[in-house]
Amino acid sequence: MLDIKLIREHPELVKQGLKNVGADPAELDRVIEADARRRKLQFELDEMRARRTRESKELGKASAEEREGKRAAMRELGEQIAAGERDLAEIERDCESLMLMLPNLPRPQVPVGASDADNRIVRSEGTPQEFTSFKPLPHWELGEKLSIIDFARGVKISGTRFHFLVGAGARLERALIAWMLDIKTREQGYLELAPPLMVNTATVIGSAHLPKFADTMYRDIEEDFYFIPTAEVPLTNLYAREIIEEKRLPIYLTAYTPCFRREKMSAGRDVRGIKRGHQFDKVEMVKIVHPASSDSELEKLVEEACEVCRRLEIAFRVVQMCTGDLGFAAASKYDIEMWAPGCAEWLEVSSCSNCWDFQARRAQIRFRSGRDKPELVHTLNGSGLGLPRTLIAVMENYQNEDGSITIPKVLRPYMDGAERITKA
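The structure corresponding to this sequence follows.
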């Protein structure tokens, strides 16, 4: 959520930021109008309450003849105050609803652009794999030939965009997850959690997935539960409505979870294979940090995601998102993309975002420095990495002419030393 003080004091600056991220600046006018009505009514209520206090004190000094009239006037004033409080509560709800729909503003270093066509490739590492003796297969053909992905039964059991990983395919994804978690916890200083996969409405609002993305999430219609679209949701809200001592910052959190998203926005895209599904796995990274260090923490977060790609020895690149491709909550963001030779495309395996104080204001996550007034923390998140796209990159880059897949060296200890996946 944006700072209402910033909106009041610098409305044109905020409007320009909203325009840069592709939002309608007119939305801000509605917020300003609702906020003005709220402040006016608040002032009127304060005046009436002060008047009631004064007249209550004067009542004891009034004569017997005056008291009845004063009591009647105070009853009427009390009714006016009660009506005003009801109106204020309604206006405050309207204000909050409007504020919750405003996206975050981009940081000054974010390039201005309208769409992903304006994103910038910051750097590349490694040479995209070339196959000179045979044409590389896409993962959906590899998976079926090796019997490690079963698409037909996934559709039979659940529907489109579902699949089974079978045998060595399931084992390979499990190896990736365990290996990535070990890097996060043993080397990069993250605390591992196993969070709930269902969260309440307040939690999803806190991470800024509600109300904007309500139609992309799965919900238990009888309970106040949403199935998480990413572990970012419960991890970011771990300290919601709490005050953290400054000395505890920064806090690094990681978790492996299944993730659930309705792929409404991608209808007709990536219909083959496992690139897009309603359910997928991911190792997530979340940082809760001091505001002074959040920009440098983003650079570090990107490097921590890149290190996983580097150790897999697969070509990757880092892409800086322009303002029009930031998404809703990010103030700045980088994507890490791995090369997939069978699909012949760069696959996003991580998206690293600095949300500034946007999520913290919604979730009321603050820190205290000594006796100073509590301040909002800054929150960051990124995939470390996301499945199944990392699995796709491994399968397609490590495939062999005989149809087998060489297991990356870093994953072999997690697969009992096996070096290849062959057809069972």
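The chain has a mean pLDDT of 94.
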